[in-house]
Amino acid sequence: MATLFKDVLILDGAMEKAVRGHILVSKGRIASILDADQTPPTADKIVSGHGRMAVIPGFVNAHTHAAMTLVRGLGEEAPLMEWLQKKVWPVEARLTADHIYWGTLSAMLEMLAGGTTCFADMYFEMERVAEAAFSAGMRAALCRGITADPNDPGKAGRSLQNNLELAERWHGREGLITVQLGPHAPYTVPLNDMKKITEAAIDRGLGIHFHFLETEWELSYLRDELKATPESYLKDTGLINVPYAVLAHAVWLDPRLADTMSLSNITLVHNPCSNLKLGSGVMPLNDWLERDAADGSASVVRVALGTDGASSNNRLDMWEEMRTAALLHKGVNRDPLRVTALEALRMATYEGARAFGFAQKGMIREGWMADLVLVDLDQPHYIGADEENLAAYIVYAGSSADVRGTMVNGKWLYRRGDYPTLDREEILQKAREARAAITK
Ligand SMILES: [Zn+2]
After folding, report:
1. What separation in Å is there between the alpha carbon of 89 and the centre of ligand 1?
2. If pLDDT is split at 50, 70 and 90, which confidence band does 299 have?
3. How far is the CA of 393 from the centre of ligand 1 (A)?
4. Distance 185 CA to ligand 1 centre (A)
5. How far is the CA of 439 from the centre of ligand 1 (A)?
6. Regarding beta strands 45-48 and 3-10, do their DSSP bridges make them parallel or antiparallel, or are they unpaired?
7. What pLDDT digit, counting tens, does each position of 79-138 carry?
8. Which of 97, 147, 320, 395 has most Cβ atoms within 10 angstroms of its Cβ?
9. Where do the structural domains in the chain lie, given as residue ranges?
10. pLDDT value at position 195?
11. Cα(211) to centroid of ligand 1, in Å?
12. With respect to CATH, is domain 59-355 assigned 3.40.50.300?
């Protein structure tokens, strides 16, 4: 079935400005893009934009823990380790595979309504997460969060095995799912386990999704407990040699490591809202992005955007992350030229897709995946929006409330409040029951 977006403004993070035209979607791909003055082709379904709708690429939430929707609101406004150890982990220990399934679906309702077409998830019971995403037709990059336990020496090994089995069953499934290995963080995975994980990743050609230097405390942990610097840690564990590594947060990573971090297999994920809410600090994003322009070299440090889990954000809203990223670094650097709207859009779309092994996703190009978001510009806050300034309107004035449709592989997964592949009422009911069960 073909869908025609007729007379819409088209914008992605690599365009200098939006263009007005038509997009024909067929067989899950963007079949053709025509200028507004060309006669649009026929299609089974036509979305008429009259120049007052925009089509942008679907957002890729590059770091989340989707089922943490079930622990949202617990232990608010506490320091990170206290929050994890006293509030989150004890409740998470009661989660069953079924709870995680419904919590993930609940997160998917939120994400799809806001234009997110793909999410990179680190959690456990990931078989059920894969099932939830795959059956709904949503794209996902999945890893099993691997942690060690001094009282249970086999735990990290079992989790790795579990993660590898997940990869065997799901990696590459119909182009919708990729699987990474998910060592949780340097302070929850001992060095020897970490090395085994990176070896397994290299051996199987898998990527790694990892929390790195979210809080300042981790710097002293590396120094005092592991006798390592961030750079020596990344090298000695083999993390920089895996097919690709995605380092979530990296708030305290020193931008002087740009040469190491500009390797094409490494992506940092900026989670500005979560880092602000947990008081973790502000990633020096500007320094990472500046690298390219400053010395004119080809080295670019890749940065994607993510929300982190719903209990530390508390939204799963990529519009919010784009806006916060664009505003925050202007303020911190006292410079309105830092982190442009287009940079924020590219980080929220293309960079996340690329980081997790999805080719031809995140831009609007002929032949690329039809993972698209339909944005309603026929609203007061878009008066004055045109081809030249659309990126700024989207990032600074827009919000997820402007999304009228979210399409993955050319299929609507969200359209004007409805979810064609999901039973919203059932999901809400089951998620409520799961929340009650884990908190009673
Ligand atoms: Zn996280």
Report:
1. 13
2. low
3. 29
4. 9
5. 21
6. parallel
7. 778 888 888 889 999 999 999 999 999 999 999 999 999 999 999 999 999 999 999 999
8. 395
9. 3-57+364-415, 59-355
10. 97
11. 6
12. no
User: Cα(212) to centroid of ligand 1, in Å?
Assistant: 10
Q: Tell me how far the alpha carbon of residue 365 lies from the centroid of ligand 1, in angstroms.
A: 31
Ligand 1 centroid to Cα of residue 270, in Å, is 11
The owner of tokens 């990344």 is 234
Cα of 426 from ligand 1 centre, angstroms: 27
Centre of ligand 1 from the C-alpha of residue 360, in Å: 26
Strands 3-10 and 19-26: antiparallel
In the DSSP assignment, the letter for residue 428 is H
Q: Kindly give the distance from the C-alpha atom of residue 195 to the centroid of ligand 1, in angstroms, as a whole number.
A: 21
DSSP-assigned states of every residue in 300-366: --EEEE----TTTT----HHHHHHHHHHHHHHHHT-TTSS-HHHHHHHHTHHHHHHTT-TT-SS--T
Q: Residues 30, 366: contact at Cβ < 8 Å?
A: yes
Mean pLDDT over each residue of the chain, to the nearest integer: 95
Identical fold for domains 3-57+364-415 and 59-355, yes or no, is no
- The model's pLDDT over 145-196, given as tens digits with 9 standing for 90+, comes to 999 999 999 999 999 999 999 999 999 999 999 999 999 999 999 999 999 9
Calculate how far, in angstroms, residue 58's C-alpha sits from the geometric centre of ligand 1: 21
* Cβ contact 65:412 at 8 Å: no
